[in-house]
Design a protein that fits this description.
Blueprint lengths: L3 E6 L23 H12 L1 E8 L4 H12 L4 E6 L27 H7 L8 E5 L2 E2 L2 H13 L7 E9 L10 E8 L5 E13 L2 E6 L3 E5 L4 E9 L3 H15 L11 H10 L3 E7 L5 E2 L6 H13 L10
Parallel strand pairs: 1-2, 1-4, 2-3, 6-12
Antiparallel strand pairs: 4-11, 5-13, 6-11, 7-8, 7-11, 8-9, 9-10
Helix pairs in contact: 1-4, 3-5
Length: 311
Amino acid sequence: MARLSLVVMAAGIGSRYGGLKQVDPVGPQGEMIIHYSVYDALRAGFEQVVFVIRQEIAETFRERVGCVIEPHADVRYVYQELDQAPAGVAAPAGVAAPAGRRKPWGTAHAVLCARAATPTPFAVINADDFYGATAYTAMARHLCQAADRAGQFDIAMIGYPLRNTLSEHGHVARGVCALTADGELVSIQERTRIQAFGDGIKYWDEPAGWVTLAPETVVSMNVWGFTPGIFEALEESFRAFLRTQGERLLTAEFYLPSFVGQLIDEGRARVRVLPTTESWFGVTYQEDRPRVQAAIRTLIDQGYYPDRLWA
């Protein structure tokens, strides 16, 4: 059985939430969403956890998150910063972060930053999203037999029904997916403003306005599975991103779904969508937190988690 790693993207600023949402407690003993995610991953067979964070939050993050997990897993920390490329990755000559940019380069860049610490098949998740235990067991099963073949990367993605991934307090961003009849990903389109209304679920599109989406539409919540070979393609794509964005570098992001979509278009990846009926919940907005706390309490009462998670 392959040794599996979990890469946790925790460098996000959380601007809509209004604080460092990665370390806000939601469990009865002060546990955070990230604690439940790692707990589920370890039960599914993952052994190493790689946290992608910013240097400015490193001390707080390790004190409140990492130290609890370190006795139970091989834990590594890597940094995602604007002014430093990951080990072995240099920006093209003359390319630098423009003055005024504050956010990191995006989710695909976050994964690239984990390259040196991740030599094994790995899953990728967001730090502030609760995905459900079956997402990790399905991904672990796939990664244990994953192998790149004939010039194609073997990639997996957990697919959620859209209706299970919405916030009651505002719009969300989701990767809207098109699938083949046998469950392979054909395309993924990042929709940055999806919201539930009284007459249905819709996303905002320029210039069409609000466009309706079916509740059962399969969406990506950034739960991906990769082989280590993906890092070479990530570096290649990141270089191209920096070289071609021009003035858009002030706000442009190197998104993981866009990267995967490009590989599909080029015939360089086969992406298996692993369906789940789990309900996502997270803290996109401050108002989401009571709902998350209630959901965790329900799962504890139903026996899915112990009252004291790491006892």
